[in-house]
Amino acid sequence: MQKEVSRAIKGTWILTIASLFSELLSAIYRIPLQNIVGDRGYFIYQQVYPIYGIFSVLALSGLPVVISKAFAQQDSLAAKHNLLKKTFVILSVSCVVITGLLWMSSRYLAFLMGDPQLYLEVRMVALTFLLVPFEASLRGYFQSDLLMTPSAISQVSEQFLRIVVIITSAVLFGHGILNVYQMGSIANAGAFIGGILAVVILLKTFQKHHQIEEVASDGKIKLEHGLALEVLLIVVFTGITIFYQFIDSFSMLRLLMHSGISLTQAEIQKGIFDRGQPLLQLGIVISLSFVSTIMPQLKETNKVKQNQSTIQKMVRVCLWLSVAETAGLIALMPQINTMLFTDMNGSKTLSIYMLSILIVSLINLLIAITSSDDEKNLHKLVLFGMSLVAKAALNVILIPKYGIAGGAMATVLSECVILFGILIIYGFNREFLSLDKQFIFNLIRAGLVMAIIVKIVVSLFAVGTTMTRGHSVILNIIAIPIGALVYLKLSKRWRMLTKEEWEILPMGKYLTKFMKIED
């Protein structure tokens, strides 16, 4: 049992580190991209990003997570291989249809987004869906055995090549070789090019570790009742932020213009709002990685006592990290914004947006742990639909009045519809998450204290200076370690985590010795 727990934790951090590295690359490439093409060019690139985001959910997180659970339920290697074949066929047919529909409707979608010239970008992104059957099925197959390394290597390689294509297109635009729309189309084609590399890596790994001749052809597939609904549930909730961004792509530009600003200014404002997307994605990577490891351990039932203890520890550690991320990003947002994007424009908006990290992390954990509850899964999908309606309605109400800050408020409030809805469905029962009132109170308290201290430190060092990129880098270098140390000290003083939970963290054993954590 201890070996299995250690393997699960190791797998979590392999995928977490790879995902963090990928998202770090994703955040970093936006710096030269935005600096070269400006906020309007950044808007042109980002406007169709939610479509790529849906592909990302299907290929990287949502589908692999739930498919891994289905694979883990099989009794034999033969059954797993038969399930792999059927999964691949179903996904292939579905994704060819999706690609065709997106390709044919690209001009209409571009018109709805507010700029008809975006249709080529829509078509470039549509091609990526042809890769979903390969990526989702193979990643799910590996993750069912808690083998996260193939997923990690393919994910990092895919992102790296994609970024090379994006930066190349931005440089060509900067030299006047491409116009802004050509730049956007080539940049978005990077997802398809990077995805091909990921598929090659996954196929090579599969061929190396799984010899087909060793597998019997009569393996009987075993699937639990309600799997289709569970697949839909995990996919939509793992990519929940993408769906909100999708609504923003079709509504924010027009609503900003309705408030009285020009098309060009509206595009610039939307570009500033989109600065928050890489930070948000970076923030929720940890929870998604924990979910990826938790799901295969739910292969029998949510009440399996052997795995329940491990899952509860992971939930507490994941929320502990999510609070630290959220509080730190909000406290340092003006400096982080300036460091990444050269100015402080939209910092208040981005601070509001960062609340999504904590809310979405908690939603992801709740959905993963209760995903086998067939009776209530339909209720959760209804909540998802209600939140999308709320997001669209709140955009209409808040954006004309508060601009892009209204869009951020609309997103956070819509996420709360889901979070509180799920808590109401389960009668605010915290036992299955092992979240007692004292732990929740201490989490909030530690996050607030850390954020206040970081703000004070930054204010003291910023007195009499002008905020430049260089200055913001220095402030972040000073403030981040101070904030981390404060959070660690408070966590130890208030006994927020057990020694076993501390050890789940990267280099946890060294950290427990450094912090002198005792049982």
Automatic annotation (TrEMBL):
It is found in: Cell membrane. Its main location: membrane. InterPro entries: PG_synth_SpoVB, Poly_Biosynth_Transport, Polysacc_synth. Signal peptide: none annotated. It is a multi-pass membrane protein. The keyword Transmembrane applies. Keywords: Cell membrane, Membrane, Transmembrane, Transmembrane helix. One of its GO terms (cellular component) is plasma membrane. The chain crosses the membrane at residues 12-31, 51-71, 83-104, 124-142, 163-181, 187-206, 227-247, 279-296, 317-338, 350-369, 381-399, 405-428, 440-461, 473-490. Pfam families: Polysacc_synt. PANTHER family: POLYSACCHARIDE BIOSYNTHESIS PROTEIN C-TERMINAL DOMAIN-CONTAINING PROTEIN, PST FAMILY PREDICTED COLANIC ACID TRANSPORTER. This is Uncharacterized protein.
